[in-house]
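Follow-up to my earlier ticket, as requested here are the two runs.
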Amino acid sequence: MGLYSRLSGAAAAIAVAFGFFAGAPAKATADDAAIANFYRGKTMDLIIGYSPGGGYDQYARLVGRFLGKHIPGNPSIVPRNLPGASSRTAAAFLYAKAPQDGTVIGTADQSLALAQVMGDSTLRDIDTGKFGYVGSPTMENNIVITWHKSKVTDVEKARQIAVPIGATGGSTSSQYPLIMNNLLGTRFEIIMGYPGGNDINMAMENGEVDGRGSVNWGSVKPLGWVDKKMINILVQVGLQREKELPNVPLLMDFAAKDEDKQMLRLISAPTTIGRPIFSTPNVPPERLDALRKAFDAMVKDPEFLAAAQKEGLLVEPISGKQLEQIVTEIVSTPKDVGAKLAKLIGVQ
């Protein structure tokens, strides 16, 4: 499933958007015995850039339970939450402080590469293109939502009524409402600083905020909110509409001119990164290849798929090589284009 069967869908869209095609075979791995000798008896850390309970945390913990089974030597994998600065604390740890030998992996915001393009000062010491990308268990659109009690039920209402909307910080959860305010004329009052998506969910349910600036569609479905009509989905963010959301407009659909569409398309592109799992820079190539091979095997594992289904988590995987290509293309965005987008959403 995922990119292995969706090349005519979102994968093709990102290929067209960035000028490459998926599906290139991975490099040959080193002898499994050598890899097994390295990993046998070791404990790997899985650094999660957000607090427990949110979508990134759920997918990372699911991966953590099964990935070791497919790595030669079968190391144990221990999830460790390291929230802060919209996952930048975790990214900084992985980039500069964690051992660079393939024993530490992690997950962080899908839009870090885009933030780098925009000159985000919190990423000045990080080059997201140097992480060792292992894979992503899902690739789905994000959505901007309000709670059912909110007076804002669609984009037009959001242009008329100012409401508070929760965000973690300089991530998609603040980027989407900011660009909607600047290009679409919405009036979102963005409340930043929540450590994770689950914290925003609780704030929304308690009436502290009216909505959430970004949440993955795959993370919302298991909550039952849609069936119970507990939320309003204002827009979906991606390069094509989700099959289950045919009547929810894409953010790009609201572009009033070509330049606006370019900006909205650029900010939509990181949805193809999904919930990325990556290692540190400078991991020996044979070990990164082994981690990628293990990930590719894991996402086809019936036990993994059954566990995901039990938790209500959709599996639409992306290979590590594909993630590497997408990130490389995003960070290659011309500086003037990145600067325009940065100005629109107030990146400093």
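Run two:
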Amino acid sequence: MKIKEKSEKLGVLIPGLGAIGTTFIAGLELIKKGYSKPIGSLTQMGTIRLGKRTENRSPLLKDFLPLANIEDIVVSGWDIFKDSAYDSAKNARVLSNEHIELVKDELQAIKPMKAVFDKKYVKKLDGTHIKKAENKLELAKMLMADIENFKKENNLTDVVMIWCASTEIYIEQQAVHQSLEAFEKGLIENNEAISPSMIYAYAALKNGIPFANGAPNLTVDIPAIWELAKMNKLPIAGKDFKTGQTLMKTILAPGIRARVLGVNGWFSTNILGNRDGEVLDDPESFKTKEVSKLGVLDSILQPEKNPELYKDLYHKVRINYYPPRGDNKEGWDNIDIFG
């Protein structure tokens, strides 16, 4: 394995400068200015053990691997609204005004590029700051031009793209997804099975940059994207950030399985009132989220290998849009355990 040399500057491109995107940017800038620590960052605060446990050699990952310094990260992105990252962060109300004002200048400097968007795939939103073209291949080319301009303007050699936009409607694999040739033909023909997130992933990989998917969309779970990533020797990753209720499931479920306890049922419900909640109020977008959330217990508990414990597990997920809650999402889980 050959490890690439450290990037002098790293560009991060974000489709979706909403609550998640602007919180990431604000957090990054607060860390750069010394107002905060990178808590929750594996690369910045995580360690790696070298040699035997008794040798006590556990350097920070950032000191062991040739990673870009936080100070050398440059961010830009696309959004369906014209709001600067500052205005968007204020609207999202994830961070306190005190924190936002500390990096006001940095956030105001980030203004989104026009996004690739189609209301057909996110029915609860109406985008006004969007690209228009005859077909989806032309939209992809526009994104590629944006990427190249971003690299040139900031003198970048290394860039990554992280999808931070909304959950799209549920799509299953179809013929157009089965090969790169079929996919590119589908782009020209405006095939409805190609969603905006897939167009972003395609544009990123064609431009030689890795793509991470922060939503439960089908985006990179198709052979066409795998083929393109393999052809250009680029990593693809992600199937939702899973930082809320699903995070708790991934912590609790392994413990339950390790204790060889059975589960009859797991009921989960959430209330939230931000844009994410509004989007998930649409049944088709909710199904995308639901399928992802339901799959996590199967992958951990493996009922096919442990039928006496989990074969009949009843798993129910509910997400309710409740505007007064804002971004302070609240969740409850009821777990029926036997043993």
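The only thing I checked on run two: Residues 10-237 form a domain with the Rossmann fold fold (CATH 3.40.50.720). Let me know what else you need.
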